[in-house]
Design brief:
Layout: H1 14-25, H2 28-40, H3 44-72, H4 76-86, H5 94-127, H6 135-147, H7 149-168, H8 170-198, H9 203-211, H10 220-232, H11 240-245, H12 254-282, H13 291-303, H14 308-342, H15 346-366, H16 381-408, H17 411-418, H18 423-454
Length: about 450
Amino acid sequence: MHKKQSIHGAWANRWIFILAATGSAVGLGNIWKFPYIAGENGGGAFVLVYLFCILLVGVPIMMAEVLVGRRGRQSPINSMRETAYEAGHHGRWASVGWMGALAGFFIFSFYSVVAGWVLYYIAGMGSGQFIDIGSEQAGQIFNNLLADAETLLIWHTLFVVMVMVVIAGGVNKGLERATRVLMPLLFVLLFVLLVYSANSGYFAEGWDFLFHFEPEALSWNAVLVALGHAFFTLSLGMGSIMAYGSYMGKRDSIGGTVLTIAALDTLVALIAGLAIFPIVFANQLDPGAGPGLMFITLPVAFSQMAGGQVFGFLFFLMVGFAAWTSAISLMEPGAAWLVETLGLSRVRASILLGFIVWALGLLALGSFNVTADWLVFGMTAFDFLDFLTANIMLPLGGFFVALFVGWYLTREMTEDELALRWPLAYEAWRFTIRYIAPSAVAVIFALNLYQKLAA
């Protein structure tokens, strides 16, 4: 039996790991993106295809990431290197860990800017700024916010500090404590908003938009959208899950734990849709507004509903919690590596990492105002960082993790780590991680790149 302990500590129990990993997976995309793409692509038929993609791509790769993390008991960079050595291969596999950690770092730099918008809206909803506004006014408020570099800087800075304070606390006093508080609050707020929506008078319309069963609306493009979202929603390819896996108990079931995380992640996305869309339909607003749904459409909807100011505040608070838990996981791989490799304390590693990512975030922030003319390959810094991570780094990270675990780790290592009860379950996972998952991620990579470059 392979035994090794992480120098960073361990989760108190399996459920803390499940909540932490769910917090990593549940982000802004779950709350506005998934319900919308489901409604637009065949409703219930899309949800079924999406769940199938989660089982074929998301779950096997997530199991692979947790497996490597728990086997190596270190940051993703060092865990990849150690498990490669153990399997008799070259340490250059650490470069996959590097790519994941850098992807998380780059994502955080622009994610914190968007999270700053959310913090601004929490404050705005709380102060009554959005009472009795129309679509034009809501659009104006949002555009004014983007144009105001100083205000964006304040909220961006606050969000970076919020995240790095948690990272500085380490696994037990930081990550675990934040998870114990934020995740239950997230679920409570989601439930409160669902009850509020159910009484909006338009719950049936919201349900129908999300779950109407239209197989004819399920084009090949919709299947590819489902495949892509199944991969991205679980925080794969960026080392976060690998880092969290390194703090997992040896006796905890990887398979059962990952299935629970995937189920919770999907459930949150579906409930968020049922909480949001009845409010949108009650106010005859456009459900297909994309990111604008959150910052322009919904403030208008809340402003026109009974108790809207309170529930609007609660909604943005929930979104803020989701952004916070996701962002913490983006920074953990880099912080763990600094502690292990450079011998820095948690606090110093957090300050150093926080300062660098804050500075990089200034470029993303400036994309909407002062540095809007600074283009990289025709894209603003914000768009370029988004393109680089979503279309290149994350799919490549997921692809190489699947390749590494499926083809380079020994059968004994993976069997020992997974400890699946049924031999058939292990064989199914092994076949999927070797053939289906890497093929699917390669398709996501090629098509995403083709669509972006052709646009």
